[in-house]
Amino acid sequence: MRITNTTKRLLGSLGCCILLCLAGDVAAQQVNISGTVVSAGSDQPLQGVAFTAGGKTVCITNAKGVFNCTVTDTTRVLRVVLVGYAPYQLKLGSGASQRFTIQLSPTDRELEGVVVSTGYQTIPKERATGSFEVINKTAYNRRVSTDVLTRIEGLAPSLLFDRRTNPNSDVNNITIRGISTINSPKAPLVVLDGFPFEGDLDNINPDDVESITLLKDAAAASIWGVQAGNGVIVITTKKGSYRQPLRINFNMAYTIREKPDLMRLPEMSSNDFINTELFLFEKGFYNADIANTTNRPPLTPVVEILAKQRSGAITQQEATAMIDALRGLDIRNDMLRYLYRTGVSRQLNLQLSAGGADNHHLVSIGYNSDETQLKGNAYRRLTLRTDNMQRLGKRMELRYTMQYVASLQHINRTGWGTLRPGSNKAQYYPYARLADDEGNPLPLVRDYRLPYIDTAGGGRLLDWHYKPVEELDYLDNTERQHDLLLSAALKYNAGKGLDAELSYQYEGAGTTLRNHQTTELFFTRNQINRLTQLTPGGIKYVIPNGAILDRGHSWLDAHALRTQVNYNRAWQHHRIAALGGAEVRQNATRGDAYRIFGYDDNTLTFVNTDVAGTYPVYGGLAGMTTVPSPTSMTDQLYRYVSVFMNAAYTFANRYTVSVSARKDASNIFGVKSNQKGVPLWSAGAAWDIAREQFYRFEAIPRLRLRVTYGYSGNTDNNRSAYTTINFSSNAPNTNLPNAAVVNPPNPSLRWEKVNMLNMGVDFGTKNKRVTGSIEYYQKHAKDLFSSVPIDPTTGRGSVTINTAELKGRGVDITLSGIIVRRPFEWQSALMFSYVRNIVHKYYNLSNSAASHISSGLSINPREGLDAFSLYSYRWAGLDPATGDPMGYLNGTLSKDYLQIASATKPEDLVYHGTAIPKYYGAWRNTVSYKGFSIAGNITYRLGYFFRRSSIEYNRLYSQWVGHADFAHRWMKPGDEQYTNVPSMPYPVNSRRDDFYNQSEVLVERADNIRLQDLSLSYTTGKPQWKAVPFSSLECYVFVAHPGLLWKASKSTPDPDNDGGVRPARSVSIGLRASL
Amino acid sequence: MHYYTRTFCSIIALLLGLQLLSCKKFLDQKPDKKLAVPSTLADAQRLLDGNSTMNSFWPSLGELVSDNYYVPVTNYNAASLNSRAHYRWDAAAETTLGNWIYGVVFIANVALETADKVEVSKQGEALYKQVKGGALFFRAHALYQMTHLFTLPYNKATAATDPGMPLRLTSAIDEPSKRSSVQETWDRILTDLKEAAALLPIDAGYKTRPNKVAAFALLASCYLDLEDYGKASAYADSALQLYKPLMDYNTLSPTSSTPFALFNPEVVHHNTYSGDLAGANNAIVDSVLYASYAGNDLRKTLFYTLVAGQPRLKGNYAALTNGVAFNGITTGEIYLTRAEGQARTGDVTGAMNTLNSLLVKRWKTGTFVPYTAANADEALVKILAERRKELAFRGKRWMDLRRLNKDPKFAVTLRRNIGGTIYELPPNDKRYALLIPQQVIDRSTVQQNPR
After folding, report:
1. Measured between CB atoms, which of B80, B175, B440 is closest to A792?
2. Interacting residues of A19 by C-beta distance below 8 A, sequence separation 6+
3. A623 and B321: CB-CB below 8 Å?
4. A669 touches chain B (CB under 8 A)
5. d(C-alpha A962, C-alpha A955), whole Å
6. B40 to chain A: nearest residue by CA?
7. pLDDT tops 80 at residue A1008
């Protein structure tokens, strides 16, 4: 039913789009308009002000601010724009000749790559020495997403998203110019409207964002001091402007997202899995588990059938028939049918802004509703934001803002990768069935054998079966968030370019978790049954027979106070832009979590339960145990005090020098050197060659060189110079409060420092047909924390000390241009990044090869090589006689996997290269004709490798984890010529599995090119279509993740999601209107 | 207007000044209430109360390489590579780091250093003694356990030169480790235990906290290893003077899967190990051992259960069924140590009395006929046989094998039959000192045991 509704809505919206598109131009009369444009406040005439109608420039003011031109009388409104000023809507009256005097209000917020924001100031990019990257606003707005981060992927060079370890949109997946640390947090700092954002990034409504700037080098970022080592993402929200008539913006989008493509996962077939089980049963592999009448470990249906046959309960024919009936099943079909649906999300956003002479206001309301592909999961978010500016007299301005976010998330987690059995099993056997042919939910084996569960307690226990499909309706697990952000900033203009600012921000964010687990859920029944005591006289429930309620609360209180003095002055050939200030910040996070038993949601009653005493587990399934009761408390407080300054001096508009410095101190625990503070600084210079007298190269009228050098830092709140201990409650059995050592003593602890040299050239051809920049940088991160394995006799396996160094270098190139001009226009932007991160110094005593072999997704430090380097054992093929994998030991063929793992020297391993892209970027194209526009973003990642997943027999036997490669395994002599998949061994040898899975034969190039998104839009408005009340109306269709265009590897459907589910494709349709 | 200006500028100046001045105090606040630099006796006690490190999952290796059990070949094949190698006493069998319990030594040292820094008030004296005595006991107990795995059995003639355990007496991690001699190792264990015994209370309130009885009992066990039987007997006696309850096994349920309660009255010090192949899920009790329990011996039905005709492990003093078992100190063990000490020093009557007072609690009521012995040798044979039965699967067998092998009368060659292949471990073999974990060898100058 849902699908039909969806389709109807889609068709309806498409129809609207088509109707709108049919509106055309009408022939018209000429009207002359003229007048002057001055700056509001100073009444200075403004040169270069453009008057545009429907995107076309019709007029430009001269040096005296005068304009004079003709337009057709169908033009009702002209847009008056100048960089650095708020755009103005000029409404035309009637009459063949009209005169106007227009005042434009200065603003620092105008975008299009011209003004950059550091969070402390906004500066014109042409006077900046540092490396800034402004996210293209059009491309940002074209995307449809609930969060901000998803929208910036592939929109700037140097910015890399790697979702391989965490598929969500998470700031931890982002790197800017590679990594700057090894063991500290790697996420860049996110700044929202001038202050570090402490809350949940999902709480920023992407429609509220005016601009996003990336701070990439030391000169740009060092103003953020010890938090800037990983780069900074500065988000500025929208606000109104003075003397602006009421403007209403409306945006609406409807998105459908396909079910995950589980069928492309390299899973083992049920037939192969069953044959493996028959083989293992024959070998007696399951004998211990079948005979285990203590713990009753879970067994698959096939093994149960075989056990029954062996005990004589059924005949061989019956057993074979029962098993054969399972061979064609695939749990993924059931999952897609019963656990997944087509995801649907809706977004609405309404924005109103207006401004008078002394104040301006903006109100924005957003609503998001996501029903994800996993049934039962949902997310709803309401955002409300107001931004107000009030002039207090001539020299004082007060800005006050409020942002409130309320969200509700339903958490379900029954899907691929999360639906898993108990015990040590990692996933379900492939022939598991979630429901029968009529759709009735079926039980799955979980912690204990099914035949045991069937009869345990003789009907006096609660039903001990696990039926995941049935449970879907009873899941009641929610997370609610309330996030309030208040800020006020008072700015006083003392004249002569001097102003002072006092700003304060408060953020209070509360999260409430509530998991109401009724006895309809296996979890609850299992908890109760395990501790139920059956006596001839009755049933004693240690855990009351009722729902279990888990609750959790956490509250963030963050205060930030900043005082800042700015000095901006230009006289004759000189120009100074300087700022200095100090700030204090405090973030407190408090939380608690607890569990209530025997809960009745209708009456809010519950039953007190003994969580301290030990009780026997039913049937001796386990030893004496206590009632599990996760109760916890957190109370954390981080404080920072900082002073900072930044100054730039420009001479003759050609030479700029800049310096920046910052000193931070914090209460990070037990670090003496912290409290003394860490001074970090940077310096830079820029030379505008194109403005030199001698510069005659007319084809490139814009040419500018920049160079910067300096330091930023990185903190890790978990380090300490002293032996620190961590308290916890309820030691097992004794319930005593207890403690464990977190850090052994480390008197030489310091903060990490990142040093960066950046050189750049900005250029532009005539008429800005092609503009671009090329930057080269060198990075040297010093005093990095590195986990050093130490002599275990010390009592610690490793210590974290400041020993490591990383050296990085790279190139960022941006080229954008207009390939074909109007009326048919083709704009193109190409981004290219090259990054190398080389481990320069790392203290690693381990000389064993095994410790260097990894997936490459975690840092694999070996001096002189890439931080994410991928190594493998040399592969010598399969043994033609047995199908065993073969490697080399001291240069000779060997199957001694133990010796290969322990005696191979790291230098004897095969080094493939880095596991993260060396070259990456995007190519964005926009083709537009009249109101139509088609845009697409192609992203590419090159020069890296990945280790393909394959069969691990050890995990297959004992954890039910198969792999499609099983079908290609070596089975008879001669097969070694066609396959590299080893034969099925018995008994299993985990070292053999490890050797094969860590050998070079599974490493492939990960290079790929993909179409990131595609969008189609049609824009119209009053100038073209008088009947509509909108100054601009845009209908759009947006497709996210359409797919791969090219990949180097032949063996995996997607090298960036090998063995996992690739990002789901989605289609959005939407409408954007301005009034 | 001027008013605004002045006020505003003053506020800014004030705030700037305040920020810089109050910086120190403002930053003195702890970032996380759960974190602390250990500085009080309470902190040190909490470290020692972290029983998941201090009393749990201690080395399983001793039981794994002992002869109390065997496993079906299918279980053997399903086991990890290291467990399999140890099971057949492979000379190259790698030892996992879990058996190198210097983490306990480190915590004990941190607690000791904390206790030594604190000024002890009158009220705090009891806590100070508990902390210091407890830390010394834990350090000695960890060393005692590891000594039995990684050094050769004590031999007076060569003890001064035989490589012992590295002795770490401070928490400083930059101090290099080197092996002491076997003599130095035992000396350290004895010194720590004697000091602990002087400090600890008779009852520490919790069975996971060391007490005086446990210190005496462990001293007695040490002197068995050192073949100083007079002292062994004396310390066991001191322990029993303070605490000697025995449970009457007739009061326990033979049908329960966990017949013994956790922290039952016989437990003097609680400690557990993870059984691996020797755990309840894999092990089949050695048939000779199982047969040695008499029909009326209640331990036969409380310790074991027959599954498909084969004796499997059931009850243990950790009250667990998942393969984790008890290897702490019990009153039963102290009785046996005293009896052995008495027998070996010629007190045959005393020895048999001690033994009988234990056994009467183990047999079905009214069926036990007290054991007698004509001479010390006969008494010793009986006591050692009972010792094996009482302390089976408590991590003691390996320790006893090591010391008893020195006497040809009690020396045994261990044998495993794995799918028809026989593996042997003769008495006093070099393999009685197991290999030190490779990570230790890689990262320190500690010498590996010879093969």
Report:
1. B440
2. none
3. yes
4. yes
5. 7
6. A725
7. yes
Q: Which of A614, A739, A902 sits opposite B47 (nearest CB)?
A: A739
Using the Cβ of A291 and the Cβ atoms of chain B, whether some distance falls under 8 Å is answered with yes
Preceding amide of A823 cis, omega within 30: yes
Do residues B218 and B399 touch, judged by C-beta distance below 8 A?
A: no
List CB contacts (< 8 A) between B104 and chain A: 795
The interface residues of chain A toward chain B in range 369-398, judged by CB-CB distance below 8 A, are 392-396
- Is B106 close to A989, i.e. CB distance below 8 A? no
Q: How close B207 comes to chain A (CA, Å)?
A: 9
Q: Rounded CA gap, A80 and A100, in Å?
A: 12
- Torsion on CA atoms A719, A725, A729, A732, rounded to nearest 10: 110
Complex-level ipTM? 0.89
Indicate the helix (H) or strand (E) that contains A782.
Answer: strand A770-789
Identify the burial level of A403 via C-beta atoms within 10 angstroms of its C-beta, where 0-12 means exposed, 13-18 middle and 19 or more buried. buried
Q: What is the dihedral of CA B236, B239, B245, B247, to 10 degrees?
A: -40
Angstrom distance (rounded) from CA B106 to CA B194: 20
Residue A604 CA to residue A81 CA, distance in Å, equals: 61
Cα gap A681→A294, rounded to integer Å = 66
Give per-residue pLDDT as tens, A723-775.
Answer: 888 888 888 888 888 888 888 877 777 778 889 999 999 999 887 789 999 99
Which residue bears the tokens 């109007």? A822
**CB-closest option in A291, A294, A793 to B257:** A294
Residues of A in contact with B12 (CB under 8 A): 500, 502, 563, 565
Residue A336, phi-psi category: left (phi > 0), alpha (psi -120 to 50), beta (remainder)? alpha
Give strand ranges (E) for B175-221. 179-181
Optimal mutation site among B34, B69, B105, interface A, most CBs of chain A within 10 A: B34
Over residues A1038-1060, the pLDDT tens digits come to 999 998 999 999 888 888 888 88
CB contact under 8 A, A741 and B320: no
Long-range contacts of B426-431 (CB under 8 A, 24+ apart): B428/B153, B430/B152, B431/B89, B431/B91
A285: chain B residues, CB-CB within 8 Å:
74, 77-78
d(CA A666, CA A898): 48
Name the one residue in this structure whose structure tokens are 């671009």.
Answer: A772
pLDDT digits (tens, 9 = 90+) for B266-309: 999 999 998 888 988 889 999 999 999 999 999 999 999 998 88
Helices and strands in chain B: count of H runs, count of E runs: 19, 13
Return the bridge partners of B69, or none. Answer: B285
* B443 burial type by CB count under 10 A (0-12 exposed, 13-18 middle, 19+ buried): buried
Classified as helix, coil or strand, B74 is helix
pLDDT tens-digit map of A11-37: 344 333 333 333 333 445 788 888 888
* Contact between chains at B439 and A725 (C-beta distance less than 8 A): no
SS3 A907: helix
Instruction: Supply φ then ψ for residue B426, to 5 degrees.
Output: -75, 160
Closest-CA residue in chain A for B15? A563
* Partners of B139 in the β-ladder: none
Q: Which burial class, exposed, middle or buried, applies to A88 when counting CB atoms under 10 A from its CB (0-12, 13-18, 19+)?
A: buried
**Chain A hits for B252, Cβ within 8 Å:** none
Q: Which of A418, A447, A431 is nearest to A962 (CA)?
A: A431
What length does chain A have? 1075
Q: How far is CA A37 from CA A375, A616, B19, in A?
A: 58, 86, 45
Best residue in A424, A794, A852 for a mutation probing chain B (most B CBs within 10 Å)? A794
Q: How far apart are CA A464 and CA B388, in angstroms?
A: 42
